[in-house]
Write a structure and sequence with these properties.
Elements: H1 7-32, E1 52-56, E2 67-73, H2 90-94, E3 103-108, H3 117-130, E4 133-143, H4 145-156, E5 163-167, E6 184-189, H5 197-209, E7 214-219, H6 227-232, H7 234-241
Parallel strand pairs: 2-3, 2-4, 4-5, 5-6, 6-7
Antiparallel strand pairs: 1-3
Helix pairs in contact: 3-4
Length: about 250
């Protein structure tokens, strides 16, 4: 018996099946396609700030006028809940009788925490209301972990401080040019085996490229503790107090 082949019908069936499969595949792909949504969150956050701090007032305070303020940020070893620990290193260790010619404030953060720019900003606002502060001469300094905090706070508030001294620390250099209008003194020990001196050198190079007023001191043969020598040098106080912000009163 002869066999009749009908290629047109077969081709039509193949096309129909192909079209059906293609349509089903498209529906499946559409169902699995990721959905991209764009939206905006608008809300208010209320943060409770609790920050211990020590204040050392200069001799003659309050007197008849306003006084410079130095905010000192300690390193990792002085964290905790014993405020007396802030006197173990740095400026508070040197000035135990108010001999320095400025209001010295040394906050303390709890063990395991790092410096918060928002909390420190709240503290500064409180200090301006509580003491006779010369707003054109507010200074910031920190050592080791405190230097990291000082960099972060200064970059968060580039219009706040008359000068910054960062010792044995570092920072993310991406936004450091926000400080091009702020006199900065960077100090580090060449033999620091905790925080590499290259971190400070990188920040200094970037600041110079953006035209900042930056002073750099690298002590040869000195390790991580570059602060004892710096704070004890009369040049530290002299340089610091000659800086002033004309735009803050």
């Amino acid at each position: 018996m002869p066999i009749h082949v009908r290629p047109l019908r077969s081709a039509g069936l193949a096309l129909a099946l192909g079209a059906g499969l293609s349509s089903a595949s498209c529906r499946t792909a559409a169902a699995q396609a990721p959905v991209t949504a764009y939206d905006t969150l608008a809300t208010s956050l209320v943060t409770q700030v609790r920050l211990r701090y020590a204040t050392i007032l200069p001799r003659g305070y309050p007197g008849g006028g306003s006084w410079p303020l130095v905010l000192f940020l300690h390193g990792a070893g002085e964290r905790g809940d014993d405020i007396a620990k802030v006197r173990l290193q740095g400026l508070p260790k040197l000035d135990t009788a108010g001999r320095l010619p400025y209001i010295l404030v040394a906050p303390q953060i709890p063990e395991g925490e790092v410096w918060s720019a928002s909390a420190l900003g709240a503290l500064l606002h409180h200090l301006e209301a509580a003491y006779r502060v010369d707003r054109s001469r507010e200074y910031l300094t920190g050592l080791s972990m405190g230097a990291f905090g000082a960099w972060d706070l200064a970059m968060a508030m580039p219009d706040r401080f008359a000068a910054v001294v960062a010792i044995s620390g570092g920072a993310n250099p991406v936004e450091v040019c926000r400080l091009r209008q702020v006199p900065i003194w960077i100090v580090h020990g060449r033999d620091d085996d905790v925080i590499p001196v290259s971190w400070s050198e990188t920040l200094a190079r970037r600041l110079r490229r953006c035209g900042a007023n930056v002073r750099v001191t690298i002590y040869p043969g000195v390790g991580h503790d570059a602060w004892t020598r710096t704070y004890a040098d009369p040049e530290f106080t002299r340089w610091l107090l000659t800086q002033r912000r004309a735009d803050r009163h």
